[in-house]
Structures are given as structure tokens and as C-alpha cells.
Amino acid sequence: MNRTDLTNLAENWFSGRGWKPFRFQKDTWKAYLQKKNGLLNAPTGSGKTYALWVPIILDYIKKNPDYKTRHKKGLKAIWITPLRALSVEIEQAASRFAEEMGTQFTVGIRTGDTSQKERADQKKAMPDLLITTPESLHLLLSSKNYDKTFKNLQAIVIDEWHELLGTKRGVQVELALSRLKTISRNLRIWGISATIGNLEQAREVLLGPNSKELENSVMIKAKLNKKIEVRSIIPEKMEKFPWRGHLGLHLLDEVVPIINTSRTTLLFTNTRSQCELWFQKLMHKYPEFAGDVAMHHGSINKETRLWVEQAIRNESLKAVVCTSSLDLGVDFAPVETIIQIGGPKGVARFLQRAGRSGHQPGKVSLIYFLPTHAIELIEASALQKAVQKQAVEDRIPYLMSFDVLVQYLNSLAVSDGFYPQEIFPEIASTFCFQGITSEQWIWILNFITKGSQSLQAYDEYKKVEIEEDGRFKINNRGVAMRHRLQIGTIVSDAMLSVKYMKGGYIGTIEEWFISKLKPGDVFTFAGRNLELVRIKNMQVLVRKSSKKTAKVPSWMGGRMTFSAQMSELLREEMYTAATLENSEKTSKELKALSGIFERQKKESIIPKSDEFLIETFKTREGFHAVFYPFEGRFVHEALGSLLAYRISLLSPISFSIAFNDYGFELLSDQEIDMQQVLDNELFSGEYLMDDLYKSLNATEMARRKFRDIAVIAGLVFTGYPNKLVKSKHLQSNSQLLFSVFKDYEEDNLLYQQAFRETFEHQLEEGRLRLALERIGSQKIIWRKCEKPTPFSFPIITDRLREKLSSEKLEDRIKRMLKQLDN
Question: Interior CA angle at 110 toward 104 and 111, to 5°?
Fold first, then answer.
């Protein structure tokens, strides 16, 4: 069969369903059948799954004319997805096409949710098409004779590549591909990515820099000009002094009519705790929604999550309050309406969420933006422009992740062992390790066999043995078993399962939240108020509580920061607000803020693009200095510490620091000599690294980062299933190692990596430098104010939230507002 006949087969199948293939789908089929590799840039819900499953199956038909009567067993294609929730959809799409083409193909899924029995069955006979996650692929590479499993592999597709790219799971994918390229001779590699700023680099990371795969590759873009409409929900009455207290809950009544008039609505919150709060408040105020509204986030048990996803598909639910657990292409029938609660912190995330509505090609995506405090309307206004420009962030790939490399080499040593001279060129061909030196390679090999210089006396770190023929192999069964249990790079805080005293599993919760509770305390989880009875064997035992007030669990993931792109858009919007006096060009969001802007101008100014604003004022708490770089909370955290440290060198003064995405505050019991700060150029980028080290207690931050690195590299063992090691023990084990390396082996690559990641990823050192350069070129405007300004108010009240319960906080803020309104 020639190529035209093959594509006709597919087109006939499409027309039989009343569909017509898109241009990008046909282009992808053609490129695949020409044996090319590539990156397909297509949004969620555009039919990207069929763009690649179809040619994989057509290619098999072409090579096996008797495909209807004879079935060649064995694994032919792998589809990698970052989210387990996606695998069911992808399986359905693949099975439908394969079956209706008469290929006798089997499709299997292998993720963390796959049962032991299924895994054992797969071991005996692999499916033709396997849908799996990066972790499960590495588990396959750690099994005996894995080369036979992958020998006839024709294709590997990495779905949602943009999600994996800026994470260590992306590095896992790069390493697995470097191995598969050697074993599977005729392998075609394809990635599917939503729009990101650095698509070309994404293709290079996927296929390997300077590789023959990259040379023989294409970039296909689905130009689907999806129309996205953003509507802001603007409160009737604007508070002059915005604060993030109600999490937008004062707009609850505005949301209900939207839910009622729409068939299905997704309400996206940024954090799991916000998700719990919204769900509970909605149920409390509108009990008639019981059974029609559900909640979905990553810590709720699997059965509930799957039930909710299915209910969205068959439209038996009116609305779902969710977090990013539904961000990626959980491919259900289109949801009619999306409501984004609070700023999404990044353009890409916002576009992705908007794409969930009118999910089918050609439909308009409608997304409502609900501000959690008034100033977020500036974000809404900025997002309107971003949507028009399709201005999306870059995803920065990881470099030199030695912890992932150590884990990968141990996986190979557990399976059939490896010869360093064969594996080294493969590793050096990846984007992540393109700069690896032979000294570093020798250090890594010594590390897995001898346990590095400072740990040589301890046998437990000598995992890999070197056999007579030079093969590196793990022969100890205990070591091998512990290693397999710990494959993966997602290290979260230890998770405890939440159960009723009488049995009945509710979900999982992070240990650091539970560790703050004592028996008898009531917390909200999975939409219920639960009383903590006791913690036993990694299980949180609870009973239902009828108490009205409860603590809301907070998860570590709740601290999202602005992307650089979002910060820039926000600054531009701010400058627009400063220069446009309610002209025709002013967006309705900015018009709605006119009262706040007026009040801000009365007390201070709205900074223009060449201005940097500093405000100082005194309250009963002390002397406040508030700075406004509009650069996102991580950068502000670092800037605040840096400035506090530099001021303390001039005069002995101590501060408490508060920050949000717009600015940061230094609070002290004595007045800051601001003129001295300005005269001494404390915003200089010189000696930045040294000062950051000293100001931020970088060693402490690196020590926390090292916990994850130690877990990924297998230096500490997280425990057997149902008997996980407590988080605090993990922390103390890894801290001990960190101290040993700090004192005796400072050139340890994993120790150094902890500092590198702290500066590059956590403190965003590159952005910090750019922010300081920008401030250096701006005119600094220092305003001595009589009282707090509208811009400073959210930062001050955020700091109070840390100290006060929500009832006390509301009272305190009401008193503050009364004083300010005079």
C-alpha cells in the first residue's frame, strides 16, 4: 500500500464518523510515514491524539499486508503522558481506531494505578501499544532483559512535552530516549506540546542537540486560531483598600447565575486549600447544589477523581471546583464555561485552562476571571492583552541533574547492568548532560560503586558492583527492590492517608500540615469537616465533625509565583493605568479600579515605566517601608532579604519581611533612614551572590533542596509501601549527609547541585539580576505617607494572616479600614 492509499484509509474512517481531518493532522501523518521525527505544537482538545496514533497504526498496516489475519506480537509504540488521568482517554482513542481498522492490536496502560496482576500479565506479553508515565518507563528499563521488550519498538510519543520540559521528569524522558535510540533501531520520536515561548529549544531537548534525529525532524504547528474570550466578574462595590482575605468568596453570589445558565462549569482555583474553601462555602450557602457540584484535586482518592471525570463527560454534574489536577487534557466532552478564581500567575496556564471550554476545535473558549482582591483586576486586564498576542512563557530545561543520572544508572545496574564506555556517549548526547566532563563521569561512577569519598566506610552506599568483564551491576536483591520502589523525581512532602475511625479512605494529606494539628482539632478536607482523633502508622484517623469553624489544609504547592512574562504584562498595565485618565482606551477592568487609583494617587503615586516607588508610613505595628518591583513573590522574597541584609550593614536594625506578587515590605520598630538606603545604592547588582548567600541563609535553603536530591539519587530511602519513612526522619537523614559533605567533601556534585538549584530555580537568580538592573535605570520615588495606601494594603494584611485566625483577621481588617476611610 502506498502512502496515499494509507491516508485514504484514515480519511474514510474520519468521514465515517462525520469528521474531517485537520491540515496539521494530515501533515503529521505524512511526516511520520516519511520516517521523520518531530514536535507537534497543538492545543489541548484539538485532535492531537489522532494526529499520531493514526500514522503509527497505518505504518504497521503498510509493513504487514496480512495484518487482518496474522498478528505480530510485541510492543510497537509507547505513548508517554505526565498525568495518569489522561491515560484512559488516550487508550480509548487508540483502541477505537486500531479496532475499526481490523488490526487486532491490544492497548495497555501502565501507571502507578496499574494493579500488580496487570503488570505481571504485561510482563508475559506486552501490549502492542503501551500508554505510560516517565516513571513507569524507567521501571521497565530496570527489569531484566528490557532490551528484548523494546527491540521492535517503532515509535515513542511524548504527550504534553511542555509540562515535562522544565522539570526533572523531562530529564528522565531524555535519559530513557537516549537508551531506546540505541536498542530500538527504527525508532521515531515525536513530542506534542502546547504553545510555549521556546518551541525550537523544546524540539532540541526532545531529540538531542546535534543528533541525526534532530536533523531528520519537523515542527508542525496546528494553526487553529482558537478564539478565547475573557470576561471579568467585576464587583458591584469596590473596596478602596483591597485585601486577599475573602479569596473572592464575596463574589460567590455572582458565580451562581453563571453556573445555573451553563450546562457544565469548571471553577479553577490556584491551590487545594482554596478549592476546599470554595466548595464548602458554595455548599453551605446553596445547599440545593448538593449532588450537582463536586470537587477535584490531586489529594482526593482515585475512585472519587475518576467518578468526577466521568460525571463531567456525561454532564451529570453542573460544576466542579478544581485545581490544576484538571489542567491537562483530561479529554472529556467540552465544558461550556470556565471560571478562573484569582490570578493564574502565568499566561500559559491561563490559556490552557481557557482551552478546556469549547474544547472542541472551532468553538470559542469562554473564561471568566474572578478577582480575589481588587488589584487582581489589573492582572485580568493584562491577560486580555496576552490572550490577543498569544504571548507565552518559556519552559527552562534542567541542566546537569546529577541526582536523576545517579538514579538512572542504578536502574540500568538493577536490570542487566551496563558498561560505562557504552552508556557515556548516550548520556552526553542528551541536552541535560551535553556539558558533562569525563571527571564528572568518573566521580558519578565512583559514587555509585564506592559511595563517594566521605561515605566510603559505609557499605549501604556501595550499591553497584563492578564485575570481572567491567559490567556495572547491582546484585543485592534488597538494594534492587528498594531502588525500584523509589524510581521517580516527584518528591513531595510525605503523604499520609486520611481514614475514618470505622474504615473508609478519604484521600491523602501532606505531613507538614497534619504535624501542626493536635487531637480534637477540626479541619476541612474533601468537602467535609473532620476531627483529628490520632495519627497511627502513616494514617490520619478522623471522625466527622459538626463544628462550623475548621482549619483549611494548606499544601506546599500553594505558593505559586508570577512568571516573568506575567510580571512584565502586569507592569505594562500598571504604567497604562498611571498615564491613561479614563480614556477610550482604558479597559473596563482598569475603569472599575478608578476609585482605588484615585485613593492611591491621593496618598502616593501610581508608578510610570521609568519610576520605582517606595512608600514609608507608621502604624501601631511599627515603621513600614514598602517597595514595588512587580516581579513575583519569589523574586520579592529574595529582594526583601537582600535589602534587609544590606541595610543592617549600615545600621543595626532588624526587620520582618512580607511580600506578594506586587511588592515587598520591611517592617521594623525603628525608622529606616531611607535617604541613606538611596545614597548607598543598595539596589546594586554587585556582590549579589555573596550578599544573597548571607542574607537568605542560602545554606538552609540548599539543605532543604538537598532532601529531594538525596531521595532522587537514592541516598536516603523513603520506605516500603504502607511503611513510609516519616518526613522528619528523611529530613534528618539527608541533613546529616548534607553536613558531612559540607564539612568534608565540598566538591561533591550532589551537594553543589543543591546550591545551584536553590539559586537558579528557587530564587530565580537570573530574574533577580534583571530586576535590579531595571530598578537601577528607573527614577526612585520615595513617598512618606500618612497611612497605608491601597497598593500596600494587600501586603500588610497578608502578613497578619500568618498570625491571626480568620475571624480575628476579619475584625482587625475592619478596624484598619475604618481608620483609613477617615
Answer: 150
Q: What tens digit of pLDDT does each residue of 251-269 get?
A: 788 888 888 888 888 888 8
Q: Which grid cell sits at 629?
A: 518591583
Q: Are 321 and 289 in contact (CB under 8 A)?
A: no
Could you write out the three-class secondary structure of 658-674? EECCCCEEEEECCCCCH
Q: Over the stretch 352-383, which tens digit does the pLDDT of each residue have? A: 777 666 655 566 777 888 887 777 888 888 88
Euclidean distance between CA atoms 192 and 158, whole angstroms: 6
> How far is C-alpha 543 from the geometric centre of its chain's CA atoms?
33
Separation of alpha carbons 188 and 37, rounded Å: 5
> Mutual orientation of helices 688-696 and 698-712 as an angle, nearest 10°?
80
* Chain position carrying cell 519552559: 395
Q: CB 630: neighbour CB atoms within 10 A?
A: 25
188: which strand partners? Answer: 155
Separation of CA 373 from chain center? 24
Neighbouring C-alpha atoms within 13 Å toward the C-beta of 509: 26
Neighbours of 52 (CB within 10 A): 26
- What residue spans of 419-545 are helical by DSSP H? 420-428, 438-450, 477-485, 511-514
Amino acid sitting at position 167:
T
DSSP state of 287: G
In eight-state DSSP terms, residue 357 is B
425 near 199, Cβ under 8 Å?
no
Radius of gyration of the chain (CA): 28
Q: Is the pLDDT of residue 217 over 90?
A: yes
Bridge partners (DSSP) of residue 132 are 80, 110
Helices 402-414, 698-712: crossing angle, 10 deg rounding: 20
Measured CA to CA, the distance from residue 757 to residue 749 in angstroms comes to 12
Whether pTM > 0.70 for this model: the answer is yes
**Number of helices (H), then strands (E), in the chain:** 33, 27
Higher pLDDT, 69 or 46: 69
**What are the φ and ψ backbone dihedral angles of 255, each rounded to 5 degrees?**
-80, -35
Residue 234, pLDDT above cutoff 70: yes
If you write DSSP's letter for every residue of 751-807 in order, what string do you get?
HHHHHHHIIIIIS-HHHHHHHHHHHHHSEEEEEE-SS--TTTHHHHHHHHHHHS-HH
CA 350 to chain centre: 13
Output the pLDDT for position 245.
53
Instruction: Tell me the C-alpha distance between 653 and 645, whole Å.
Output: 9
Q: 664: which strand partners?
A: 627, 659
Helix (H, G, I), strand (E, B) or coil at 708: helix
Query: What's the grid cell of residue 609?
Result: 515605566
Alpha helices, DSSP H only, in 373-487?
376-389, 402-414, 420-428, 438-450, 477-485
Pairing of strands 664-668, 656-659: antiparallel
Determine the 3-state secondary structure of 556 from DSSP.
helix
pLDDT at 543 over 60: yes
Q: In the chain, what are the helix, strand and coil shares in percent, each to the nearest 5?
A: 45, 15, 35
**CA separation (Å) from 484 to 135, 230, 491?**
10, 46, 15
Alpha-carbon distance values, 295 to 269, 326, 612 (Å): 11, 11, 42
Q: Which has the closest alpha carbon to 406: 452, 360, 365, 362?
A: 452
Helix residue spans in 101-249 (DSSP H):
116-124, 134-141, 146-150, 161-165, 168-183, 199-207, 212-215
